[in-house]
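Following up on my earlier thread - several people asked me to post the actual chain instead of describing it. Fair enough. Here it is, all 355 residues.
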Amino acid sequence: MLSLDPFKVLLPAVVSFIVGIIIAPFVIDVLVKNKIWKKKSVSKSIDGKDSPITAKIHNDEEKKLPRMGGMVVWLSVFITMFLFWSISHLFPTEITTKLEFLSRNQTWLPLMAMIVGAVVGAIDDLLVVEYFNKSGNYIGGGLSFYKRFIAVALLGLYAGYWFYSKLGIDSVYIPFSGDFHLGGLLFILFFVLVTLATFSTGIIDGVDGLSGGILSAVFTAYGMIAYAHGQIDLSAFCFVIVGGIMAFLWFNIPPAAFQLSETGMLSLSLSLSVIAFLTDSVMYLPIIAFPLVVTTMSVILQLFWKKFFKRKLFIVAPLHNHFQAKGWPSHKVSMRYWIVSYICAMFGVIIALIG
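Reply from S.P.:
Thanks for posting it. Predicted structure:
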């Protein structure tokens, strides 16, 4: 008998893409009508100093590009999951029941992480726009870094505790070595650290198509790993996210109709950290998401160089802005990041399957 697993994994991804294509024009209309864009362009670096190069690259006064485009991604995921769940309960047959992929042991936690990330990110996005951001005290607008840090850390703390208390997991798989037992407290703290690390990847948003292309590669890789591990529901969840991202990309390639922004980046990065632990392949995350790691490290190194060597390592950070400052057009930056992302994702899957 033909297995339904490939259909269960890929069909929801197609549905998610179609859902995203349908809802995106409505989302764009709402964002534009309510002027959900930044009050002013970024003119300062992360350390609070004037950054004319960054201001030139991110000239939001000219673009007036709406934020909260990430709504297309997570709405596509939620609607698709609800659609398959509804069909399986309203028309229960052997096929419809097997195609449902909402399960307590595989998809509840990453779904909850996505919901929390979407809500916290949406609050931050709304506080950036002119109507809500009256004072403009915080450099980037919206929630302060400290508040977002605390929110993400608390989610990581809860998720790590859930893994330890409900699943009995207190170890991390080390490639070509085996499980390394950390114990309850260290495992939870490590979970929080990974969650905060994925949260930092939000710096890749801003260049048309960049964030969506990179994240589609990362979630494709984890969908393949989950499928190889027999975690079919989780694999379907990963590919549903890919479908939503592809719908977002349809409207985000130059000239972009909106940005992924915090509601998109937080929802995706938090669910990614949970998925990495659920597949017991968190140690492969730096390989699979290597462009994200390099981009985050470029910001850290830039701050380090400026503090201790009194000069810049890059023309401007993060790294993709450095390439833009060197004269690369945004589409060149995005497409080369995409290529590197998929190569890294494929290499990470290979290592995960043989490790």
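The CA atoms of residues 105 and 166 lie 10 Å apart. That should answer part of your original question.
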